[in-house]
Amino acid sequence: MDAPSQPRQRQFTRRSRAGCRTCRARHVKCDETPDTCQRCVASGLRCEYDLTRLPRPATGRALPRWPRPAAALPPGPGGGSVDERHCFAVFYHHTVPMMASWFDSEVWQRLVLQMSHAEPAVYHAVVALSALHEAAAAGADGEVDGAADGAGRELALAGRSPHHRFALAQYGRAMALLRARLTSHDPLVRRLALTCCVVFGCFELFRGHSETAFVHLQNGARILVSQPHALDPTGPEPALAKVFVHLDLHSAQFSEGGPLLSLDAEAPGLEPIRSVADAKHQLDPIVNQILRFRRAWESLRPEASLGVQELAAGLAEQARIQARLHGHQVAFEAFIAGAPPQALSPKDWRSADVIRMQHLGLANILDTGLVASEMVYDSCLPVYQAITCLAAQITRSFQTGPDGRRPNLVLDMGVIPSLFWVCLKCRDVPTRQRALDLLEAWPHREGAYDSVAMAPIARQHMEREGHFLAGDAAGWVVPESARMASLELGTI
């Protein structure tokens, strides 16, 4: 009787990480000969290398110093190069949590991840976004640097980096795949197009190309309003619509004629707030109305020349929005007071401070919208002091988190707009200086708001008003003639 045969063991061979795509598809080891490998020549096959690759340190990993993920990556889409799979893992473990640093997001934490497994266009779009995230988190040496958490400087350096070139290649591939899918009659194409508009818009925002980002935003909004009957209230499209409404708020400062959308022109009444993220979604349409009001009336009140009828109409509109904002504040504070302490996470408490800070800033923007004199802002000092205290508390909260890392890329508006507003309108020297210090101390991007770009603008604005000539004089008063009433941000 023959002895039972031993089970065959697969011989170990080291995989090629920089080989051609043809050898990877055949599951053979590439000899990595530049331009055309010898295995493809011998087999009479067309040898195709990836046009762009991420850098390969001695360890064989693209960027080795990310914090170790707490959980394993779920099965990703089939295929894909080593670089693509690496960037998808970065997207899952680092980019998504960072994008949702302020508020939980159904779109980023569920929908985009699901779509990236089913739709190649979304997969390559998120790979591009996470490659850009790595580029922003990388120092000049190409390695992840925890101290280099700025947005503007790193992205400027990234323009010459392999990560940036790889991100652009993936971005172009995603757009080509989307165009091919748009010709089909698949009913899910609408959802795919909306998702890609969101990811493409964020990609362009984080590159600093705000106008291009707003083009994607307009395209998505056009899809939403073109077939309103196709909006499934039980599907993911309402969550996507909320993202478009929020991104539209950024266009109010960075685009001519923004906000661009009127998706919430007839906004419904306030509903009970069930979560901190729900409070943010209900606040967004109110922010939209406040920014529209401010922009409309700033253009009508040069030298306080408003007529009686115009002023009456403005006061009525102002009172209507004030009542809505106040209703949101009351509902939000009632939700916080009624929530068991253990029901709110540290992230929820930080997000609650963000909303409170936004309440203060928005009320100040609205209340002063019909006043021509810049001297009125001197009576708002307690508001500006409260805003800077909340911003400092929010900033410190990241340092006490699990890894002590502050996000460098966030979708939602957080501390930057409020601190920038204080730098523009507060003329109290210590409070204004503290707001500028907070803005400069945390280089990061919140959608279209880039602190690296906006802090120098705020500093220049303060310098023109003589802020740095006053020293530490708490009682120093900037005369009306030296105050700058407006500042356009469209060139940032």
TrEMBL record:
Record SUPFAM superfamilies: Zn2/Cys6 DNA-binding domain
Gene3D superfamilies noted in UniProt: Zn(2)-C6 fungal-type DNA-binding domain
Pfam families xref list: Fungal_trans_2 (PF11951), Zn_clus (PF00172)
Keywords annotated in UniProt: DNA-binding, Metal-binding, Nucleus, Transcription, Transcription regulation, Zinc
Ranges for domain Zn(2)-C6 fungal-type: 19-49
One Gene Ontology term of the molecular function aspect: DNA binding
InterPro entries: Fun_TF, Transcr_Regulatory_Proteins, Zn2-C6_fun-type_DNA-bd_sf, Zn2Cys6_DnaBD
Gene Ontology biological process terms, A to Z: positive regulation of metabolic process
Family annotation (PROSITE patterns): ZN2_CY6_FUNGAL_1, ZN2_CY6_FUNGAL_2
Protein's name in the database: Zn(2)-C6 fungal-type domain-containing protein
Native source species: Aspergillus ellipticus CBS 707.79
